């Protein structure tokens, strides 16, 4: 993707514009030609790295047939991804040094950590200590598909990828298999599962490189996708936009949803997403305020909720239907409060 010097320049330019840079760390497994794996293929039991891998069968070979399971533990049964034994001290130390290197050498601002739930807790605690020693406010975001409370006790990650948010948005906005009341109940359950400060920084998204594009879930209905993105930017947690959604990329298979970015296409909703981001940026109540249900009208698809902090109160209205409609005055009541309420 470029030279070391170009990456250093990229990070510098991003920082000048107030943009922080987080890179992807894949420490659960390695590539076929990682130096340590090369060494065990070449030297077998005499390799200094033989304890860095699980269940090695000697001689260690790279099978050409993709249907042949190799003589070593792999990630996802993929022969080209040998699994790393990070319970071994030397291997753990090496990758902790990797975590520090990219901060010290290139001044990155954190790590998104792949397959985090399949690596032992001891390594993550060690990795966190090593990284935070270099940069106290470096953020660590773990890829955990299930409920992640175990990894969010303050000793491992600062945040995790919130797949639960994606599933709920798919069922409510895309396929509309959830009613407003059901969606609201599940959102509150999602928020309450972690301490408040943790829930506020969960990495929310509609799609990623591992699941179908949200627009495909919507059956190509761009209005539904835009409404889901409006909720992403006004709801509880940190919004994340997967590349290409602003260019309406679709896809249900891996090759399709990982399609190249269609640079220069005039068919996009880039300005719309920028407007949503601006709303979030300008209103602190969206970033750190409380979340309170005001109205759920299942038969109309109308949903109102309140975001509030000490500085402001925002009433946010969602019309999850295919027609314009007014909100019946009798259907909702704001809790008693002081000060002005702004409606979005």
Give structural notes.
By secondary structure, the protein is an alpha/beta fold. The chain is built from twelve helices and twelve strands. The chain has helices at residues 4-16, 35-43, 89-106, 121-134, 163-174, 180-192, 196-199, 214-217, 222-234, 254-257, 270-282, 284-288; strands at 22-25, 74-75, 78-82, 110-113, 139-142, 159-160, 203-204, 238-239, 290-297, 302-308, 313-319, 342-343. Helix 3 packs parallel to helix 4, helix 5 runs antiparallel to helix 6 (180-192) and helix 5 packs across helix 9 (222-234). The radius of gyration is 23 Å and the shape is elongated. The two termini are 41 Å apart. The mean pLDDT is 95.
Regions with pLDDT < 50 over 5+ consecutive residues? none
Shape: elongated
Count of distinct strands: 12
Which structural class matches the secondary elements? alpha/beta
Main beta sheet strand tally, sense and closure: 4 strands, parallel
Count of discrete alpha- or pi-helical segments spanning 4 or more residues: 12
Give the helix level as a range of percent: 25-40%
Give the C-alpha Rg. Answer: 23 Å
Series of H and E elements: HEHEEHEHEEHHHEHHEHHHEEEE
CA distance, first residue to last residue:
41 Å
Which sequence of strands runs across the widest sheet?
1-4-5-6
SSE order and pairing:
Blueprint: H1 4-16, E1 22-25, H2 35-43, E2 74-75, E3 78-82, H3 89-106, E4 110-113, H4 121-134, E5 139-142, E6 159-160, H5 163-174, H6 180-192, H7 196-199, E7 203-204, H8 214-217, H9 222-234, E8 238-239, H10 254-257, H11 270-282, H12 284-288, E9 290-297, E10 302-308, E11 313-319, E12 342-343
Parallel strand pairs: 1-4, 4-5, 5-6, 7-8, 11-12
Antiparallel strand pairs: 2-3, 9-10, 10-11
Helix pairs in contact: 3-4, 5-6, 5-9, 9-11
């Amino acid at each position: 993707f470029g030279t070391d010097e170009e990456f250093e320049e990229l990070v510098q330019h991003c920082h000048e514009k107030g943009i922080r840079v987080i890179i992807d760390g894949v420490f659960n497994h390695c590539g076929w030609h990682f130096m340590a794996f090369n060494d065990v293929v070449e030297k077998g039991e005499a390799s200094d790295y033989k304890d860095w891998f699980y269940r090695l069968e000697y001689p260690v070979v790279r099978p050409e047939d993709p249907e042949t399971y190799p003589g070593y533990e792999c990630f996802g049964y993929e022969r080209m991804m040998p699994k790393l034994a990070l319970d071994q001290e030397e291997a753990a130390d090496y990758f902790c040094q990797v975590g520090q290197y990219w901060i010290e050498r290139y001044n990155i601002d954190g790590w998104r950590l792949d397959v985090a739930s399949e690596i032992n807790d001891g390594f993550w605690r060690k990795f966190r200590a090593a990284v935070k020693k270099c940069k106290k406010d470096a953020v660590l975001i773990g890829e955990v598909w299930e409920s992640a409370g175990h990894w969010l006790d303050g000793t491992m990650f600062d945040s995790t990828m919130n797949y639960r948010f994606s599933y709920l948005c798919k069922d409510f906005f895309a396929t509309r298999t959830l009613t407003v009341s059901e969606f609201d109940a599940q959102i509150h359950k999602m928020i309450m599962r972690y301490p408040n400060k943790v829930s506020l920084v969960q990495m929310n998204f509609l799609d990623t490189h591992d699941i179908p594009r949200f627009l495909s879930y919507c059956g190509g209905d761009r209005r539904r996708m835009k409404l889901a993105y409006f909720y992403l930017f006004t709801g509880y947690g940190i919004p994340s936009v997967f590349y290409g959604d602003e260019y309406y990329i679709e896809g249900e298979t891996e090759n399709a949803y990982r399609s190249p970015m269609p640079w220069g296409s005039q068919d996009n909703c880039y300005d719309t997403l920028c407007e949503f981001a601006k709303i979030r940026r300008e209103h602190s109540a969206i970033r750190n305020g409380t979340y309170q249900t005001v109205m759920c009208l299942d038969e109309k698809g109308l949903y109102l909720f309140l975001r509030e902090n000490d500085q402001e109160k925002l009433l946010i209205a969602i019309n999850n239907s295919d027609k314009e409609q007014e909100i019946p005055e009798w259907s909702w009541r704001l809790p008693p409060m002081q000060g002005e309420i702004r409606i979005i």
